[in-house]
Please model this.
Amino acid sequence: MARVYQELEQALPGLSKAVYSQPVDALSAPKVTVRPVTVKGGLCYQIETFRDNKAYHKNVEAEELLLIAENELEGRYRQVLLVSLRESAQYVLRQRGDYKKSSSSPSLPRPGGGESHNRSKEYILREGENIPALVDLGIFTSDFKIVRSRYDKYKQINRFIELVDQELKDYQGREISILDFGCGKSYLTFILYYYFAVKRGLEAKIIGYDLKADVVENCNRIAEKYGYDKLRFQHADVSRDVLSQEHIDMVVTLHACDTATDFALDYALRHGVKYIFSVPCCQHEINSSIHKGGELDILLQHGIIRERVCALLTDSIRTAVLQSRGYEPDVIEFIDLEHSPKNIMLRARYTGKERRKSLEQALELKEKYGFAQKLLELQYPEECAGKKPL
Ligand SMILES: C[S@@+](CC[C@H](N)C(=O)[O-])C[C@H]1O[C@@H](n2cnc3c(N)ncnc32)[C@H](O)[C@@H]1O
Model:
């Protein structure tokens, strides 16, 4: 790879955005963003520079933009993102002074654009797409083919992103902040970052939390390797450690074990997080605490049935709690059973409309069958202890 300003020139007729970030010296502005604007009916480009938390704007024509890109920006920023009609591409400055294309993907069709037919039939992350972090994570081979044994994982993360994409298609913000609870090896976390930061060109800040220190360390190493500066992983127990106190737009969980999902949902409810995408697993809590007590006893007699009923009851109660706190949840089949037996996603968006009918039923069942359910207890401790009526 040679020079980014030459790539910018190629992208210009259909440029939707260019972002220069991570300056090499303290004198350069921390970030420079270029966007097309129409001034007096003509196309030009707005250069937005941030200094001391203030944004400064300058409108220039294509020729001047290229001069500025070549003489003032080239080599001064470690990372450049170019989003054009054709593709989104990320470039990283090498030690010898030129840039290397670190990842690229065909641009997503915009909402209402003419190319959007048949989107749902295509994977958002296509085989062959230049996503190097997926190579490090063992999902893609070095020539971006799917590693056959990881095909189920590839399908899962694609489906997850597809469901996120459906929900946030019209998201207008320039930034998005996300927490991933129980991120593990973080296939999903990397892909979320890639989807928002590279494909959609947003300022994406993502933190993945996990109990395993060595896994967290490895994920941070990969994020640094690809210049994903706003993607970080933290060693944390989400059931007791202090987590992010910043504004968060989205909480995700993918197979976070047992009650780790409840702590994630509880965090989202307490911090006014707008979007929740949660695929639970290992819902053991109710199964290990429920006793017989009434009409449902027939469902509790045989191990396999009991286990499935308790898992479904767990997610039904979680959904009821979300509704009671002003969320609109969808319960979606996440993936075909052949790819994962843990195949329900709770997808919820905050609307402010609180509905408590199902919550009343959940509390009645809890009292009658004596089970523990973490989210219910975290959100309604006094009602669960019988100290306060709903
Ligand atoms: C089944 S793995 C899923 C990993 C990843 N989300 C995925 O789908 O590939 C569950 C992860 O949750 C983590 N976990 C479980 N309980 C946790 C807790 N209390 N705090 C933080 N992480 C937790 C585990 O360490 C494990 O890595």
